Here is the input.
Amino acid sequence: MTIKDWPKNERPREKLLHKGPQSLSDAELLAVFLRVGVKGSSAVDLGRELLRRFNGLPGLFRADQKAFCEIPGLGVAKYAQLQAVMEMARRALEGELRHAVELGSPEAVSHYLRLSLENRPHEVFMALFLDAQNRLIAAEELFRGTLTQTSVYPREVVKQALYHNAAAVIFAHNHPSGVAEPSRADEALTQALKTALALVDVRVLDHFVVGRGGTLSFAQRGLL
Here is the structure.
């Protein structure tokens, strides 16, 4: 039985339009994205297979092009569409941050940072440069490292803060291993950056560690 044979109120697209996207399961949301299934399987069945194969939506979003396209019924076009959807969501969140006055609160940036960093296969160090009202001026990826470490240069961070005329900054980096816990090296780096930026009157509001499924705030942990 295809989705067209289902009762109208049970079809994913109609259900979404009638009850809202929050009413759909992960497989049903994927079915709306996929539009069609494959021979012998509906779009919902294919969605369930993707969730099983990649261990949920986070795993699917982390999948590279080769692994994604190995699934029967998928291909480069669908992979490109998925990447475009994720990038649009990231840019939409960034746009909201640009108009947020209370960006200094950890909850205001956590979703954006997870979408930006959680699925990276390598370690990335980024900075959110803020004005005097804690509004976002720019979000920049400053350094990129290996799976285990990255080299961060305080002089370059100070240079970028001055370039943006920033009054404050929030740092973030990911742990591809999946554990959102700061290392002693992370703590030492944060203090070094805080000291360097204090010389040019730029405040460090927070440093987030992004792991698989969550973030840790230095400010909330009392590490600043």
In short: The two ends are 58 Å apart (CA to CA). The mean pLDDT is 85. DSSP finds ten helices and five strands in the chain.
